[in-house]
Write the structure tokens for this entry.
Amino acid sequence: MTVTEAVSGEPTTLTAAFGGAADLQPWLGMVGHLIAAGPLPEGVPAGTAAATVPIWAHAHAMAPLPALGAQPPDESVAAFGPNVAFTFTFPLPGRYLVWAQAERGYSVMTVPATVDVRAGVPQ
Ligand SMILES: [Cu+2]
């Protein structure tokens, strides 16, 4: 996953590379779904830390808007990706676990990543 410089309180672009052709299908009406959990506490064993974090968030990558009056693409339209960009604003600095998900061939794929978010200027 490619991530622009992540600063708390500022929009971050996270681009998940699903590889292969531009044949991703909208899943639940979206080209991509992103889950972010964090900031991870220090000194908690891997695999358990996310259970205690204060922030669990969900973001979407939408397909281009259809023409006025047209139907948005459904799962039968395999024409997106293979890179899917998300915009998310991390509320707090620290280390986050993120998972991006998209559908290909009627199967859901997951791209995991770790993102370090530095502290922004307090608002
Ligand atoms: Cu979603």
In short: The domain at 2-66+73-117 is CATH 2.60.40 (Immunoglobulin-like).
